[in-house]
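Structure, all two chains, one model.
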Amino acid sequence: MIITTIKLQPFGSFSNKDLAFQPGLNVILGPNEAGKSTLFNAIQKVLLVPTHLYKKDYEREILGYLPIGGGDTVHIELTFEREKKAYVLKKTWGGTNASHVQLPDGSVLTSDDAVTQQIETLLPAKSGTVRWVLMTYQSGLQKTLADLQEEEETIQSLGDMLRKAVLATDGISIEKFLAKIEAMQAGYFSRWDHQKKYPEGGRGIENPWKKEKGLILEAFYEKERLRVQYEAAAAYEKELDALNKSIGTLDKSIAERKHYKQTNSKIVEDVKKRRTVEAEAKVATAEINELKQANTAWPVLEKEVENLQKLLPGLKEKVQTLCVEKDAAEKAEKSKNLRERYGRAKGKKDAVATVEKELAKCKKIDREDLDLIRKVAQGIDMVRASLSAGKLVVTMKPKKNIVLSVQSDLGQMAERTLEVGKDSTAEASGRVIVEYADLRLEVASGEGNFEETQKKYTQAVQELSRVLAQYQVESLEQAAATHNEYEAGLANVRKACAIFEEELQGTSFEELETQVRDIGDTKETRPLVIIIPELMKAQSEIERKEQDIVSKREILDDYIVKYKSKDNLLDELLKVKYKELEIKKEMDSLAPLPPEVTDVGAYLAKFEENLSALVGEEEQLKAKKLEQAVKLEQASDESSEELKVRFEDSKKQFEGTMKKGEAIVRIGAVAGTILGADGADIYQELEEDLAHFAEVISDKRYSKVRMDQSMPVGFVRSDGNVVTYDRLSFGTKDMLCLALRLAIAKHFLAGSSGFLVMDDPLVNMDPARQEKAAELMKEYASNKQVLIFTCHPRHAELLGGNQIKL
Amino acid sequence: MSIKIFHTSDIHLGMKFAGYPDKVQAKLIEARFETLRRLVKLAGDSNCDLFIVAGDLFHKVSVSKKDVVRAAQILNEFQGRAVVVLPGNHDYLSTGKADIWTQFKESAGDHVVLLEKQDVRSLALYDLNVNLYPAPCDSKLSSVNYIGWVKGALKDASVQYHIGIAHGSLEGFSPDPERQYYPMTVAELTAAGIDLWLLGHTHISYPDKPGAKDRIFYPSTPEPDGFDCDHAGMVWILTIKDDKSIEAQRISTGTYLFKHDETAVNSTEDIESIRQRYSAGDVDRTLLKLKLSGRLPKDIIEQLTDLRKFLEDRVLSLEFDDAGVAELITDEDINRTFAEKSFPHALLKKLTDDNDQEALQLAYDLLLEEKQ
């Protein structure tokens, strides 16, 4: 788009002004207050501001440009070319609003929206870009620079400025924007744990954060507060219901118990009275019975005692007689026994005589005699034993069959026939004698004197024979048998004597004989076994009758003590009878038991139980009513239903706040992505252009820009040293600003001949740089339309181009 | 002889309206008493024989003694035969401090009948050939209803009309998901074998279109009590005739209206329509909760401020929530407002591409604010 003419009729200070522009460089020169700013704004308004505006927009955009000389309408007409084709754009604001565009084919658009849309397609860049990048007047760089000079944190501001230039260019501070997003995030999420979807540190409503509360946290607490209130109200209502129910139940139960008490009190009282009266009646009946019995028994007893006393003498006489009979019977019994004993003793005495006779027939060999015989026999054995110490074997080997005699030890000489080829042996302990023909061969062992031994042996044998003869026995064995016979006889005698002695029982047989002789004659009596029971029976009958008399007398004595006399007793009986009648009358007057009561004890227990339960329940009721009163004091103004509605609202509120907070987070995330990725390329491109333009203006003094990530921190001089931004001169800073502007504009006008509007870009530079800058501008304007506003004729001269004076 | 019954319920006297603006709170509290007074007059003027409150005359059992006395005095003014009051689940029967009914009885006139027992109540004393079958509540919540006894109760054939009065939810009609408000069913009510059931509890009029054979009625509340009661107050005037047919007349009552209006606004016409909606009628007695959604161009969205002001000047109380209205931000808006390739442009384009309207709106506003 190349602007060709503009007509202001009227606009601001211009009542009717026509101006023409050329492609390439146009320099609008005019002193201060000449209307440069008005012209700049007229171009901007006609291209970018619709004619149908809301009041606020109208006031901001147009009101300041109403004709100074009067009138309520402004009008601008702009002609321009695009791709060699001419367009006419007219806009009127104020009293009447109108938009008009005439297209190259002669057609005309008059709807404001249509005109706006059409112009947007013809602008060298999007309308925002045109407004904020290509038509910056009295804002942009110099103002930013001024801000920059006042700022202490230079680098940060420069970065911001650069970002503004590259990425925003329209007055938005990304730093501020990001800080704002961050602050908003904090405002929403402060003290909120996004991961856990809960307040930080798990601090719920029971332990809430007091400070630094974010909107989400506050909405959450509000929601929770209402939830707690709602739940508390619901619980409260349930508790109150339960409490009221239990009060109702108690009320009902107490009423029932009171009714029971009332209907049963009289009955219970009478039941108790009946118990006492019944006991009294029982006593009276017992008394009557006792009196009646005494009345009947008294004369009977008296008669009985009298009869018993009459019987006693006869009985006593009978006992006397029986005692005499008993003594006689006892004596007869004793005599009989003595005679029987004497008979037995006599028999036993005869037995002793018999066995003594038998003993006398036996040879007397007692123990000592037998021992003597045995001792002699043992002498023989001892001699034989003395030979048994040696061992002698004589072997005979005959050369022909012979008969010879052989004697071994104390044995007899005996003949033996020997055969040829068969050995014969003779064995002995001490000596073997072999006699054959004329030969007597004696073989002896050891050193013993066999002759001596044989002599002793012979003597011993003779001694034994003598002793046996003395006792008239053949052998030791016979002596032993005789001894045994003798001992047996002797034992029989002893046994018979012992039996006899036992029968005598310490007395002598003669004494016994004397006693028997002395008994004399005895009388015949009944046996004792008949007499004694009879006697005992008679004695016991006397005893019984005497006891009977005593006990009957005791009863009679009691009667006298109790009743004094029989007449008195009758009086007493009448009195008690009367009392019994009175009691019965009283019993009849008592309330009857309910028919269903079968167990009076259980009935009374139930009544008592009801009474104590009543007391307990009345106390419980009192306590419950107190509890109810306290609870009602605690009642909230809102019911659970009302609170539920508010709680649901607060949930929605919380969700809305959360949604908004999350939207902010997403904005931050998208911003971060853009600044981190897309921004980097833009900075790179910008860095190159910036370096190029700076190099031209500074006549190669500054050919490199030092960037710190996305931020330029200063220039790199040709000697390689870095001059940081805060150390740059005012003019150099301005130079940097111009270079930046051109770099930015280049970026947006790439491939377009569209226009760039600038305001006094050379003002702070030294003459040399002004020249270089002017050259650069001219070069820049070789293929783009550039409109430069200046109040300096010198600058206009340096720039050349189409000069327009205001 | 037919009889005419004024059937109301759920007046909730003593409700405090916590959470509402102070300026309207007192009005709402007072309005409930005033409405009761008007109902009593209306019933008298309409020659009703009976004035029946089917539960929840009071909002709570902790309602003040003053309010109880005042209610009784208002009911005493009824010109018909008798006033019948059933304790509901908000003003249930209780003893001790929670007993509001002893005070009520002391203050009420002879022709005010309080139904305290599940027992047949004859109205012969009031020259009415009617037996009542009440199911008074004795607690706020109950998972069982108390109408069970009616089916087995002796129906005196010499009495012309047998009318049940109960309070609680009706399955299929009342919202009671936890079944804790004395839930009843149509089948149970029908099986009770009486001529008419007058119910309370649900703040919706039932049946919607009554016919002569309808036997179950809910009057709704006569004075709306919150934004969940988004309609006018209602009562029934019911005439039960000799043939037991019912003639039902629904009467609109109440002073205030609670309007919960959730509207989409996508054009000036939509805004205008809201403006029209609240320009006339009972708007000065309306509490409005207006929740707007939709997308509007920047220049139009500003009109919402005017709308708010407009409504504030007219309605009794306004809750205005336009957080759901997003600025309609087009690519053209972005291109026109921000330089291409600039950070704001890139940011907004990305959010547009992501169709993240919430973030787009917010970012756009922030960037514009920053720019200005």
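Residues 83 and 112 of chain B are 5 Å apart (CA to CA).
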